[in-house]
Amino acid sequence: MSAVITLLTDFGYQDSYVGVMKGVIAGICPTTTVVDLTHAIPPQNLAAARFALLSAYLYFPLGTIHTVVVDPGVGTTRRAIALQIPNGYLVGPDNGVLSGVWAQVGLTAVVELTNPQYWRTTDPSSTFHGRDVFAPVAAHLAAGVPLAALGTAIAPESLIKLTIPAPKITETNAIGHVQHIDHFGNIITTLPAQDIHRQPWKLTLDTTEIPLGHTYGTVKPGEALALVGSHGWLE
Fold first, then answer.
1. Ramachandran sector of residue 26 (left: φ over 0; alpha: ψ -120 to 50; beta: rest)
2. How far from 78 is each of 10, 67, 73, 159, 189, CA to CA, in Å?
3. DSSP 16-45
4. pLDDT at 207
5. How would you classify the pairing of strands 33-38 and 4-9?
6. Which of 59, 97, 196, 213 could anchor a disulfide with 218, C-beta 3.0 to 4.6 Å?
7. Which residues contact 83 (CB under 8 A, 6 or more apart)?
8. What is the rounded distance in angstroms from the CA atom of residue 226 to the CA atom of residue 235?
9. Is pLDDT of 12 > 90?
10. Distance CA 227, CA 17 (A)
11. What is the three-class DSSP state of 187?
């Protein structure tokens, strides 16, 4: 059975871009399962793409190929890359969108996608590498092509890393940062659950104290609440 391929883009749902990528994948590896992680990333928002991948990759089976196309540098000298991580692969531009995952779990190998044998065309569009490079590469990986065949090995330390300031946690104080605001307006911070449950904190946003609860129903509609969300961070 072929590997699962996930697609994460900022293409939206109005145009045919996502469907075209799926068509390319089907033409190369028709037995693979393609999962739409999301296509509603705000245009060119690298931080939002990084968070979406980081919060989702753990829920997929071993060998899954996560393909990210949030790519404001498409057609420039930015590198197209594919990485092997302990539980699968990452495919996308070297602009930091993949870095949340590989920084967390480590990587086994990384290549720059320099072998046009595994592209859709040897003359890829300067505006749609999702169709011409990333989708076909993901499909070839799913079909069993080894990572090393896809291009030139590069040093992991040369990869672009998109970082968010780490939380500062002491015995008496914990300061986190906003890493995402979701569809419901929840402000998801960088404070992990284990540090929140370690002792009874008083939570403040600027100077406003916010109660810490376990469910959204802890407070009345319209009232502020902090809790540990499903991803394991304070929100």
1. alpha
2. 18, 16, 6, 11, 30
3. SHHHHHHHHHHHH-TT-EEEEEES-PPTT-
4. 79
5. parallel
6. 213
7. 89, 90, 91, 98, 102, 107, 108, 109, 110, 111
8. 6
9. yes
10. 37
11. strand
The residue length of the chain stands at: 235
The number of beta carbons lying within 10 Å of the beta carbon of residue 232 is: 12
pLDDT over threshold 80, residue 173: no
Work out whether the CA dihedral 150, 152, 157, 160 comes out positive or negative.
Answer: negative
**Tokens of residue 189, six digits:** 């911070």
DSSP collapsed to 3 states, 62-116: CCEEEEEECCCCCCCCCCEEEEEECCEEEEEECCCCCHHHHHHHCCCEEEECCCH
Tokens of 6: 């996930």
Q: Are 134 and 95 in contact, with CB atoms under 8 Å apart? A: no
Mean pLDDT, all residues of the chain: 92
Nearest one of 179, 207, 201 to 227, comparing CA atoms: 201
79-106 exposure pattern, b = at least 16 Cβ within 10 A, e = fewer:
bbbbbbbeebbbbbbbbbbbbbbbbeee
Bridge partners, residue 210, by sequence: 203
